[in-house]
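Reviewer 2 asked us to include a model.

Predict the structure of this chain.
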Amino acid sequence: MSTRENILAAVKKNQPALSALPDISVFKVHEEDVVKKYSDVFAGIGGLLVSAGSLENVKDLIRKDFDQNKRILTTLPDLTDVAELSDPDADPHTLEDVELAIIEAHLGVAENGAVWLTEDVMGHRVLPYITQHLAVIVREESIVSTMHDAYSKIASEDYGFGGFIGGPSKTADIEQALVLGAHGPLSMTVYLIK
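Predicted model (structure tokens):
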């Protein structure tokens, strides 16, 4: 036997006994109104939540609230009359001038106001982080109460890259100076649709 095989055999032989996973049912939270909880929490972390109702209303809001002369990208083919469709094969360096990115989230989390995005809805991994402003479409029925609920939903999914994003990018130093857009978007808007 080689030294490597000896070490691996010794490690395998000296494994601790298996123990049951802890019971986390005490963390189970049942929100009566997860949409209201999500709205309140998201507003509290500096985001703007708009009950849009439909994608058609989202288009009208984008036209009204964002400068159409600046670069707006989306990963949603239904929004190409208000934004350029993001090309997932384009060089990520070409995204440096994106003013607004519009993406649809897989789900929202009421307890912390986050949204779950994977690379298949981002287009480019960098898009939701490099844009000046981020707009995320969240379907009301996709909002879950807690991160425990979110992880149980995504545990069996097959994805490469994913992330929870909660509100606009911000940081504060010891002198209490809050900086928005420190390492990501200056603003984040969530459009709730049915």
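The chain has one domain: 30-170. Residues 28 and 156 are 20 Å apart (CA to CA). We have added this to the supplementary material.
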